[in-house]
Amino acid sequence: xxxxxxxxxxxxxxxxxxxxxxxxxxxxxxxxxxxxxxxxxxxxxxxxxxxxxxxxxxxxxxxxxxxxxxxxxxxxxxxxxxxxxxxxxxxxxxxxxxxxxxxxxxxxxxxxxxxxxxxxxxxxxxxxxxxxxxxxxxxxxxxxxxxxxxxxxxxxxxxxxxxxxxxx
Amino acid sequence: xxxxxxxxxxxxxxxxxxxxxxxxxxxxxxxxxxxxxxxxxxxxxxxxxxxxxxxxxxxxxxxxxxxxxxxxxxxxxxxxxxxxxxxxxxxxxxxxxxxxxxxxxxxxxxxxxxxxxxxxxxxxxxxxxxxxxxxxxxxxxxxxxxxxxxxxxxxxxxxxxxxxxxxx
DNA sequence: ATTGGTGCAAAACTTTTGCACGGTA
DNA sequence: TACCGTGCAAAAGTTTTGCACCAAT
Lengths: 168, 168
What we know:
By secondary structure, chain A is α+β, with helices and mostly antiparallel strands. Chain A has 2 domains: about 1-90, Winged helix-like DNA-binding domain superfamily/Winged helix DNA-binding domain (Arc Repressor Mutant, subunit A); about 90-168, Ferric-uptake regulator, C-terminal dimerisarion domain (Dna Ligase, domain 1). The first copy, chain A, has 6 helices and 6 strands; from the N terminus they run ααβααββββαβα. The interface of A and B includes residues 133 and 135 of A. The structure holds a DNA duplex.
């Protein structure tokens, strides 16, 4: 029994809920996947191991994991909510490449400190903060300039994490 | 003719599009409203002045205004896209009160500088960044502690800008 | 036995799209 | 005249909900 599983169980019990095979499975698949999964992504993975689990349960369980402090909701602006590990994971922010969708995680204590200072200035009590930098990653920039050198078109958009939808 | 209207017209013409009464009206209503309007909000306001304008046109025009650099999309995580003025408006970030939904705009040059430095460190070319601090504003904190003093429940959630939906 | 959980289908909601008609250049 | 814009209704896509049945405590 991992620490995360214990946290989940404690949360479940504190709220008078029940432990089920589905919730266990969803938690485990989530824990062993290091990515910014959407509910749909997680559903696909869970479904592979137990096709009887429904999408609805994945949605509901992700909310539960968030409440328990194990997951964190992240919105990248692609129309769906993504979830990342939150238990004993250092807070970090994201750079998102608009070329290939790649996500770079980074952290700056200075950045955190200034944010807290700004909040204090406005007598605002911080619960959470979210910083997203959107731009072009080194790889895409290189690809782009090479393409330009050869009088070609801009690089094809790579289909990767959180760049799968062109909607919105 | 305001500067913003000229920018819009220039954009329209550059793209070979046409000037219409609807687009003019939507732009004007948007410009005279200082808020983080969702498409629905703007539609309601426009609809009051000309009930023949449809929601679809508002969506399409907001995209156009964004392209023209007059509006900026902001996502607060309430499930809809909000738009704010972007023309000759300094970049700023947001604190969002989870109690009453109030939005406080703030700016810190230091914060911007560090973000740029972090991006440079990862050889990332910044196109835009978004910082959102979620927490409890001074008013709500006061209301909450007063309520606790009187052994009452937590303050009722005020229905205000971007706090109108409990969905998501 | 009681209370909560699950999966399905349907609903809710925001945003986009197809289409026929009307307006702009 | 040719092309673009508009509004409506329908579609698309994500998330939530109602409900009947099942399972955990």
